[in-house]
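Practice problem: predict the structure.
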Amino acid sequence: MHTQVTLDDQLIQQAAKLTGLDNLQDIIEIALCELITRKKSDPLAKAFGQYRWEGDLEKMRNDQCC
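Answer:
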């Protein structure tokens, strides 16, 4: 896919320094792979909206729950 985007130069420089890569396409592809891997493996993200929460938030906020 060919696309045109504006990227933060400092972010690209940091990514290049951390990865040792100097090719922008490689840096972006690795960044996307890392994002996808993290999102797929994040148990909290997978659990979001799957469980019903019961409790008294006001008591918890005032440290009166137990």
